[in-house]
Design brief:
Layout: H1 14-26, H2 30-36, E1 40-44, H3 49-54, E2 65-68, E3 86-90, H4 91-101, H5 106-121, H6 126-135
Parallel strand pairs: 1-3
Antiparallel strand pairs: 2-3
GO molecular function, one term: kinase activity
Organism: Maricaulis virginensis
InterPro entries: Zincin_1, Zincin_1_sf
C-alpha cells in the first residue's frame, strides 16, 4: 500500500533555518562555544553579489555559508577588528545540497555548514577541515 504525501508542503523558511542554526549552536560543546567569543550567526537566502565577487564565485548556489571577520590566528588586541565576526548560512544552497544528497537530515547539514564556517573563525582552511573530516 502506498502512503499518500501531503501536497501542501513548503520548504523551510528563513525563520526555520534560524531555528535550525540555533539548535546547532546550542548543540555544540560549551567550551567550543566559549572559544567562539561573540561570533554572530545570520541566515539569508543567498550570498550577496559583493560576497560572491570577493570569493571569485559566480553561482550563488555554490556557497552554502561564509565566515566574515578576522580569524583568531590573526586577531590582535592592539588592532581590534571594527566589525564583529559573522557566520552566514545560505538557505537556498543548503536546501539544494540537502535535496541532492538525500542522505542526511537537514538539521545535520545546517550544523555541518555552521561548524565549517566556525572553523574558518579559528583560522582553519577548507583543506584543513577536509583533512580533519577524512581522518575522523
Amino acid at each position: 500500500m502506498t502512503q499518500s504525501l501531503p501536497y501542501d508542503l513548503l520548504p523551510p523558511s528563513l525563520e526555520d533555518f534560524e531555528a535550525l542554526a540555533g539548535q546547532a549552536w546550542d548543540g555544540l560543546p560549551d567550551g567550543f562555544r566559549k572559544m567562539c567569543g561573540r561570533v554572530e550567526i545570520f541566515v539569508a537566502d543567498f550570498a550577496d553579489g559583493e560576497t560572491l565577487d570577493a570569493l571569485g564565485m559566480e553561482d550563488a548556489f555554490e556557497l552554502t555559508g561564509v565566515y566574515i571577520g578576522v580569524d583568531l590566528a590573526r586577531k590582535s588586541v592592539i588592532d581590534p577588528s571594527p566589525e564583529p565576526d559573522r557566520v552566514f548560512l545560505f538557505r537556498r544552497p543548503i536546501l539544494d545540497e540537502w535535496a541532492e544528497r538525500g542522505d542526511i537530515p537537514l538539521g545535520e547539514l545546517v550544523a555541518h555548514v555552521l561548524v565549517h564556517e566556525i572553523g574558518h573563525h579559528f583560522g582553519l582552511s577548507d583543506e584543513d577541515m577536509h583533512r580533519i573530516e577524512d581522518e575522523g
